[in-house]
Write a structure and sequence with these properties.
This protein has one helix and four strands. It has one helix spanning 9-61; strands at 64-65, 96-104, 107-115, 123-126.
């Protein structure tokens, strides 16, 4: 009997299934890693806004603004007002939000900063306790 060299259909099918699984796992992991990176960008932006409000705006003015923007938080990199999808803070669809509270004539005593994250619960920073 002459022996033929080569792969059987079953061997080829097993290799193709295995390779397909590896490719699928690679793309799932890549998507998860990219989402975690975007979440870290959001946290960094919220922390920058928080420190700009606390260490900059509040110390200078003694209150918090009714809205935050590049104009009143000049110490902050303006690009941080834009979320990873390119939507600015305060616009519909933004993953960032600034919620002032206890305001009188544009001067607020409290605020909450939020970022909607993809892989974790919402990231929230509130004003420091004032006396």
């Amino acid at each position: 009997m002459k022996k033929k060299s080569g792969f059987t259909i079953i061997e080829l099918a097993v290799v193709i299934v295995f390779a397909t699984l590896l490719v699928v796992l690679f793309f799932i992991q890549k998507a998860n890693t990219e989402a975690m990176h975007r979440d870290e960008q959001r946290k960094e932006a919220i922390n920058a806004m928080y420190y700009a409000l606390e260490e900059g705006f509040f110390i200078e003015n003694g209150y918090y603004p009714e809205e935050i923007s590049e104009e009143n938080l000049k110490v902050m990199d303006p690009q941080l007002f834009t979320d990873p999808y390119g939507i600015n803070l305060g616009k519909d669809g933004s993953t960032y939000s600034y919620e002032p509270a206890n305001c009188d004539n544009g001067k607020c005593k409290e605020y909450t900063l939020r970022a909607k994250l993809e892989k974790e619960d919402e990231y929230v920073k509130k004003n420091r306790e004032t006396k």
